[in-house]
Amino acid sequence: MKRTIAICGAGIIGAWTAYEAHRQGHDVVVIEPEMPGGEQAASFGNAAWIYEGSLLPMSTPGLWRDVPSYLLDPLGPFTVKWSYLPSVAPWLLKFVRAGNSVEKIEICAHARRAILTDTLGRYEAMACDLGLERFVIRNGLLFVFPSREEYEKEALGIRIRRAHGLRWDEWGNDELHTHEPELGPHYRFGVFHPYGGNLLDPGAFIAAVVAALKQRGVRHVMARATDFAIENGKLRGVVTDRGMVACDRAIIASGARSAALSLKAGDRIPLETERGYHLVVKNPACAPRHPLMPSDGKMGVTMTATGLRLAGQVELAGLDAPPDWRRADIMRTYLERLLPRAAANIGETTRWMGHRPSTPDGLPCIGPARDCADIFHGYGHGHSGIGMAPGTARLLVELAAGQKPGIDAKPFSAERFR
Predict the structure, then answer these.
(1) What is the mean pLDDT of residues 285-303?
(2) Which pLDDT does position 65 carry in this prediction?
(3) Which among 159, 181, 134, 151 is positioned nearest to 53, based on CA atoms?
(4) In what order do the strands lie in the sheet with 197-199?
(5) Is there a smaller number of Cβ atoms within 10 Å at the N or the C end of the chain?
(6) Over the Cα atoms of the chain, what is R_g?
């Protein structure tokens, strides 16, 4: 049955869901107060990776031992702002508990695998359909380590990825530096995932997707969704700061700001913002041949349309605290080890901070809301929004249309937080 579906948010999840809903024949309206693809979206400034192997949650066994260091080191790769600790403590406790056993990690990885399958192929198909092929790059992804021994410390992730059918190439020092001649000598072992890829410019890609959909009849309402109009359990429309948008179904895809809107639909979701930063070297002296991730920096280093992007860091400080630009600048230190020639001639740079919408258990919230079965949650993807967007969109539209989902939707349901 044809529906009128309102999508609250135009980040990567909202853009993909609008595309999938329109492709399946529904009337679609996107409600977004700012320009799609703008700096307000987490997907604007992330590492731009499309990676099927992003199976493990952030929280893993033994993480609790590291919590004191998160509080004491303001420039570490994961930090908690002291003044925000009372607010974030309940979420942080759930976060640690969610990863306190291998069994929980395996269950999470199984659910994530279902939604990540063939994600790069889906991007290529969408880009071909919309004439946006230039944005999707299939060039693999390269993880680099100081030694094989450092790589083997990630035994749990290696085992889980192999169990789910993922395969990769392992490069020793000579082969690694043949493939990446600009790589610094600190890194002597590499793991290359040939099925991975990246977006040339995530923000521009989202803007281009929404623009292409508007040409096909999708509406964009420049407004902020604030509530829902529900009568006798049925949705009548989305209430915005510029009036009501009539619809049969509504999807909450407002990223880190989804919690307030979800509460209007009856669900109190433990959603936190993992603030991430990036540093872009506009005209680097050199660039890697593949997107890189150094094991000691845990950041994506990707050549994009705007320059060499270093994206990473996790900061728990809330939605309203000002950026701590030291967290962007610290990535220069890693660049010195990773690509010495680029670091020595760094030139003009730009910085950005954005909000990753994160649940404590590493799984997005996808499914119907408590107070109205016509409203659906679609957020909470943490570090994996780009990769999970195609699978999330398909699942959301199947649920909204009353179809039998192609994958098990239960692991993503808001019921797990009730």
Answers:
(1) 95
(2) 76
(3) 159
(4) 49-50, 197-199, 136-137
(5) N
(6) 21
